[in-house]
Each structure stands twice: as structure tokens, then as C-alpha cells.
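Repro case for the chain-ordering regression, as requested:
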Amino acid sequence: MIKNMPLSAMIGLFFVCLYFAMAIFAPWLAPYGMAEVVGDVWEPSSAAHWLGTDNIGRDLLTRMIYGGQTTIYIATAATILSFTMGSVLGFLAAVLGGWADQLLSRSVDLVMSIPSLILALVILSVMPVTVPILIVVMGVLDSTRVFRLARAVAVDINAMEFVEAATLRGEGRGWVIFREILPNALSPLVAEMGLRFIFAVLFISTLSFLGLGVQPPLADWGGIVKENKDGIVYGIGAALYPAVAIATLAISVNLVADWILNRTTSLKGGRG
Amino acid sequence: MGPALRLVVQRIALGLLLLFLVSILIFWGTLILPGDVAQAILGQSATPEALANLRDELGVNDPPLTRYFEWLGGVLTGDLGTALTNGKDIAESIGSRLENTLFLAFWAAVIAVPLAILLGLLAVRYRDRWPDKLISGVTLSTISIPEFLIGYVLMYFVGVKLGWAPTVSMIHDGMNLGQKLHSIALPVAVLTLVVLAHMMRMTRAAILNVMQSPYIETADLKGLTKFNIIWKHAFPNSISPVVNVVMLNLAYLVVGVVVVEVVFTYPGMGQYLVDHVSKRDLPVVQACGLIFAAVYITLNMIADVVSILSNPKLRHPK
Amino acid sequence: MSDPFVKVRDLRIGATVYPPGEKPHDIEIVHGVSFDLEKGRVLGLIGESGAGKSTIGLATMAYGRGGVRITGGEVWVNGRDIMQSSLGDLRRLRGGEVTYVSQSAAASFNPAKRIMEQVTEAAIKQGKFSRHEAEQRAVYLFKKLGLPDPEHIGRRFPHQVSGGQLQRCMTALALCPEPDLVVFDEPTTALDVTTQIEVLMAIKEAIAATGVAALYITHDLAVVAQVSDDIMVLKTGDMVEYGTTDQIINNPQEEYTQALVSVRSIDHEEKQPSPSPALKIENVTARYRGTNFDVLKNVNVELHPGQTLALVGESGSGKSTLARVITGLLPQRVGRIHFAGRDLDPVMKNRSKEDLRELQLIYQMADTAMNPRQTVGTIIGRPLEFYFGLKGKEKQKRIQDLLDQIELGEGFQDRYPAELSGGQKQRVCIARALAAKPKMIICDEVTSALDPLVADGILKLLLDLQKIEDVAFLFITHDLATVKAIADSVAVMYRGEVVRYGTKSDVLSPPFDDYTDLLLSSVPEMKLGWLEEVIAHRKMESAGN
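-- result from build under test --
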């Protein structure tokens, strides 16, 4: 499996692992404390501060590492939530059909008829902005997309004759969902998980940038942009580091997801 | 036109129903969520009297149904209420901002749509060769960076380092079109980049799908030239998927505008919405949310109507 | 003496394959095939799937699908070596000198354009005719091909005409530019037999009238025997035998050709009905939910233990619907189903485990009937575990016994369906049904998706298993040769009704009702001149009326 991995996927996997390791071991890797003021405002990069310092003199590398931790933590939690909710409800809608399916699908249509960001802003205007609430809001909003995919995949598989054969054998709903449908639905769902994770990273960064996400002094990539954006007009690029971080993470996840999708669809063998 | 017309009418009715339900969702959604709006606006240190006054002003004490229909009635007659924070008429504040936002979105669309279709066609024409791979690579990177960061990257390099365009997009009535366009050059560029990537990828996929149909092989085996095959056989069948792609991305543009306006402090709807979310000015948020949702729903509806109208089976029933 | 119109010498065709988990590599799919074709003659290319026959057909137009390309040899058309031709020359060749009729006209017509525009397009673009001339010729061809309302049918869109009509329109499309060679790629395979015979006759007459050369590609030897002058038998990209139609049909030299000629000649002695039927369907009427039209109307049939009832009919006759009613997936509106001494509940969910076990189903597409993520061992083992509670060694032994019964050896237990051939897959499905020790198995077109020789093997296996296991088969098929091979009794279905029912010998011997007569006489026979005989016979009858 690893042996036949294309180079692009291998690079992607390397960066994904690197970022997650950085997130997990942030306190040991970061050279300074997260909110510790260690120098002047917007110092250029030096041996002491590889990326320089930020708008109030905190070490930028430290902020970036801790910021990655927050961003990745929130995005991961939101993805897990959206996946569990979306796929469980999607499968149920597909297998139950009829009234339950109609109710779930139409509600999802309704929520999806409003752009996620707009809906999130409306919700966050009345709710306190805390990390758990951000995770729940993002997870629930994004679960609509997972729901659609999971339902579509499950409906496709449910129409296959091997599922009918299992039903005719007298198998219960549990066997049909977990032994017949799930193993065949897994690969598109896992690939989609990558895309949802990227979306969550972009989403939380955007919210934080707008001042409606992670609140200071906690560091996160979107927040770092917000804190340092005023430097841009003076030619100070501190606000651009998160761009590099987000882009490499997102592209890496994309590459890995592409590989998973390609590998598993070809495994199915089709009519061969 | 029988069945096609019926489906179009059905789709438009569905759009209206959706708008109605969305208005309920936006109105009630902000009500049923936990959290005391008055408390949120005034903060923890608010006096009980102030809270009571504000609740009264918000109408929290009225039955929700009455309030909803009062609100909806107002929306339908163009009265969006007054902002809590400064007491100004919301409809008035939105008026010029909506115009500015549409101005920005319009120019982004004017550049992005033809460019995306052209690039999509190029990618199909040179499929799996270097132009295709280059286009895919570049679009993959722009998809992977959030809009606001693309904004700052452009601002840093084009605005500050090169000095080609203003980093703050001020716009007012005294400016002529040329000045206005110069002022919004960077936000338009950002929006174009963001939408271009999605639109181009989807156009490529839609046209490839058509190009792989057996009737294209038939055309090929008739000895037609590549141009004739694409123009006569692929194009008529691609209209509907491509229009769909364009509409979906224009809808996406609506969201992109919000963030980009904040980056370039452009006086539009997005900036207005974000400001008032932070200030927890509920009436403004509801009004803006509804307008954004309405634009989004309308664009999606147009996409569906076009695909119904371009379906030969529906236009020419048996 | 001049060169033949089409001259193919040592044609080699290659393709690039992308197997999962391996590096892409090149393979050869046609290994050196040679033939000649004169104007006015028809060469039949015959072989099973993967024989390379379509690939060879398209090669005469210098066209390869999805990365397929000519890697060696020569292809001369009309005195030109097409491998040396420029792209402009090839464009004149395609659509002007050589044209193509595909298997699926429905997919090959552009849905957004009117039929006339598409039929005349090549002739006009190639500069052979003016628009007016081309349209006149199209109308002439529509008439020649027996299309209704030939003056106006061209104004319709493809979705506005039936499948059989569209296939004839495709033939008109190919003949319109007065080509020298037409490649017919399985033009009648997707059609019902009664439609097939009409299209076949129309094609044959049109070929004769226009004097073109034709390559006729099919997997059905009986069909190709009716239209071609010469036949080439292909197997996995190799030429097996090449000769006149008369020689191939009446005096095949190679073993493979002999097997193809004698396909479906299984001798099956019909058994006598027993006093107590295993399955008795009484007055069954059914319709799909949300419709107001009965797809089954008052159906009455019986199936006796250890025997086979063939349910035969064309698409839309309701034969597969009857299977859904018996399994309880589509509860009947009226009537009852008596099975193994008891009445079956119309709704599957209310049936007992025993009901479900004793009534098994085998599907047409073995590909979709097996979970691609389960091994053969799991697929066969699950019913053993589910119905009989078998576990461990006992289960393994029984799985191996079943695998032996379906003539698959050891080592198949751990394979996935994707690793099996089409015939092997269908065998595993049979084993899965047998594992339940059923009293009756519904076989829904189980051999239709298979190549003739593989299908023959499956039919023989089913007959053997019936003797050993004493299981009854309800055999649903559109293929009368299959019916002859295995049935004890036959029910002919037409538009939801059983129009003829009885023992095989009664049903298949005269006097016939009109529909059965039409159906029986439409099945191509492996005999020269059959098509003309049938058409002449029909003309005589209609003249007599």
C-alpha cells in the first residue's frame, strides 16, 4: 500500500503528519510562551526570532505553532462532529426512506440554501463566541454537506442487488448498514473527510480573521492575520505567514485525499 | 413548451417557498438559540433597568408570531427597521452599500466568467498536457488559501511593494468610473482569483463529461473538424451544465464579497454585516442575512430554470 | 487484378492499461489479423467479449477508443494506406468513405439536435451532396429502412422515436453519404428479438440496394450467418478461423468454431408434471406504487418440484415483475401465491425465515449481486451461518463442498468478486443460492450477460444441480434457445399477461397464437437463408389475410 504511493501523496502525507505533530507537541516545540512579549513590535527575523515578532512583540514562530494547534484542534473536532452527524443521519435517511428521509433531506436543503458563512454570522451574532460553540456551529453547518454525500452514496449502494439479496435473505437493518453498505461507502467518505477538514480550517480562520472566531490572547492562524494586518501597508509581511501554513496544509490534505479516492475506486474493480 | 413551462413554474414556486422558510429560519433561529440577546448586547455589567428597556425595544416580550409577521411585513414593504446601535434606518444604510457590493461583484463576474470558461475550454483542449496541469495546479493553490489571505498577499505584493493599486478601496459618488475601477482593482482581483478556480474546475469537468459521450464519437467518426465537433455537438449540450457552474459560483461570489470587503475596508454590505455581528445588532444582521440568502437562492433558481429550459426532452415532448 | 477495396495485413493493436497499484503498461489486444473485403460484400467479425472485434472495426477508420492505437501491420482502404494518411485525409475517409453504426443508437445521437440534421451532416460536410440532395436521400433511406412516416420522421428529436426506429435511423446516417464501407458494431444486440429481425432485414436490404462493403460485428453467430458472405472468428485478439459463411456454419474446422456453432444444443428431456406443485400462482395482479396501470394481469402458473418453468417474454412483458411479486418485494394487489404447501404472505417483511430460505433468487448481473468488499467465502458462508448456524470448521467444509459443486476448486474462498471472471461470478451466486438448501430458485436472466459458451456451461451446471438437489427453477429469460435447453414447462408473457402456458412440447409446437408465433419465428437460427425464409413466410401470410 505504501510501496505504490505516488510521490505527490507521499509529500502530502509527510506535511500532514508534520503539522499534526506540531499541533500535538506545541508546548515542547515553541521557543517561547504563547502570550509572552519577548521583543519589540514587528522585529525582523533573527537568530532569536526566526520569523520575527508580532504587533505587540510576541515571537511569531511561537504564535504560529500555538496558532496551528488551535486551528487544527478546532477543525479536527468540527470535522469529527460533522462526519458523525452527517453520515449517521445520511445513512439512516437512505435506509429508512419515506417520511424520515423527506424530513431530513428537506431540512438539509433549507439550511444549505443559505451560505454557511452568512448563517454562521447570523448565529454568532446571538451566541457567545467560545471554542466549544464554534466547534458545534461549524460542525452542524458542515454536516449538511456530509449528509448529502452519505445519503447519495448509501442510496446508490442500497439500490444494488447485493443489498436486495441480503434483505431477501432476511438480514436485519444492522447487518445491511454495517456489513453491506458501510464497507462500500467508506472510501468516498474518507476522501470527503479530507475536503471537509480543509474547509473547516479555512472557515475557522475566516471567522477568527473577522473577529468572530477564536478570541485573543489565544493564538490561531486567522487571528494572527487580524493582529498583524496593519503591518502590511508598512511592508511588513508578518500577516502572510499563516497563508503559507494554511496553503501547505490544505494542499497536502488534498493530495492525500485524492490518492485515497483513486486507490479505493480502482480497488473496487468495476466490471473487470 | 408544456412540461418545461410547468417545471419552471414549479421551480420558481419552490424558490419562493424556500425564501419564506429561510426568513423564518433567520428570524426564529436568532430567537430560539440559547443566550440572552439583551445581555449579550449590553454586557455583564448592565443594570436590570437597562436590560428591561432593551428587551422592550427588541420586542422580546411580544409573542414571536406577531413579531415575525410585523418584521416580514416590514421587509416586504422595504422597511427593515432601525439599527439598535445607532438608531439609523437600516434600509437607508443598506441602500448605497448594496449598490457598492453589487458594483464590486459585477466587475468580478465580468472578468471571471469569460476567463473561467476560456481556461476551462483550454484545459479540455489540452487535457492531461502541460496547460491543463498548470491550470489545475494554480487553481488547486488558490482553492487552498482563504479569500482574506489572498487579499493580503495581493495587497502586500501588488499594493505595497509594487504600488500599482490602492490598498484601501475607498469609493464615493464623486469618483468617475475609471477612478472607481482603479480603487476596487485589488478586491476584484481577489474575487476573480477565488471564483475563477472553482468555476474553471467545474467548467472543465462539465465539458469533459459532454466530450466523453458516445455522440461526440459519432461526430468524430463523421470526419468533422475538432472545431465543428465542439461548436455543433458539444456546445449545445454544455450550455446547461456551464450555466449551472456559473450561477453556483456567482452565488459563491456573494459570500466571498463579505470577507474581501473587510480586508479592503470597502463600504459594502459585507463590511456592514460583519461590523454589526460584532456589535450584536440583531435587526441589521437579520436584514443583511436575508438579503444575502435571497441573492443566493435566486441565483440557484436561475441555474435550475436554465437547465430545465435547455433540456431537449422537456422542450420537445413526445 | 486490382487490390481489394479493404486490405488488412497483420494488423496489431495495442492499448495502455492502468491496473490498480501497478505502473501503467502497454498490452497488445489484437495480434496480427489479416483479411480482404470487396465492394458489395459483407464480412462478419464474430467472437466473445474481449475478442477485439470492435477494435478491428474501428481500426478501418483509423480510430481507437481511449488510448487504443494501431501498433503494427497495414490497413488499406480504397487504395490508400490509412496509417500513412494525413489528418485531413482521415477526415475525408471517416464519414465519407467509411461510416459506423454503433450498438446504442440512443447514446450515439446528439440529444439536442433533430434526426435529419444528424443523418445528413456528414454527407453535406464532406461535400458529397447539397443539403437538399442529402435530405432527399435520407428520406429515401428512411423509406428503404421501413421507418414510419419517412417524410417527416427526420424532424423529430432522438428521444421522440423508439429504440428500434432509432437504430434504423443510425443505419440511414451511415448510408447517407454513399460510403464505400459501413462498420456495423452489434447493431441489433440491444433490441428485442421481434424488433431485431426487422432491423436485420432492413440493414440487409439496404446493404444490397446500395452495394456497399460492410463489416458486421456481433457475438451472435446465428445473426451474422444471415447477413454476411464471409465470417472471421476471433478469440482474444487472434484469428481462429476465416472462411465463407457456408463453410463456417456447415463445416467448421476449428474446435472453437464448432463449439460456437453447436451452442445451446443441450438435450433436455422434459419431465411430467407431478400432482402437487411446489409453487402455484393464482390470479396474481400487480402494479407499481404510484401508478394506475397493472403490470401483471391475472397470472396463473404452476411449478413442480425438481422441475423448471421458463418464463419467457420481451422487455416490458412483466416477467421480472412476477419474480418481484413472488419474492414479496412487490406485493400483489389480487391473487395468492401458494408455495411448498402454504400461502406466502404478499409482503416480504412478514414472511418467516423458513419462507425466505426455501425461496432463493439468482440475478442477471453477478457483478452487482455480490458485495465487492466480501470474499467468496463470506458470500457463500453467510447463508450457512444465517440459516443453519454453521460455524468454524463445519462452515468451511460446507463452503468447500459448495465450491466443488459449482466446479470451482480450492483457493477461491479468499478471493474477491473483482478477481473472478464473469462465469465464475455467476457460479458463486449459484452456490450462494444453493447454500440455503432451497426448494425453489428464481433465475432472472442468469445467462444473458454471459458469452454463449460460458452461458452454456452455466446452463449445464444448473441442470446437473437440479438432478442432485431436487430443486425447482423458475427460469426467467428472453432467449428461446435457453428455454429449449432447460425447461420442462413454459409460460409465454406479453404485456403483463400469460398468453401461452403448458409443457415445453405443447408450447413450442403448433398451432400457435399470433404472439408466440411471432416470437418463435423471430429467433435467429444457425442456418443460411433463414432470414429470407421467415420474411417470405410472413409476407405470404399477410398477403393471405
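Ordering looks correct now. The longest helix of chain A spans residues 60-96.
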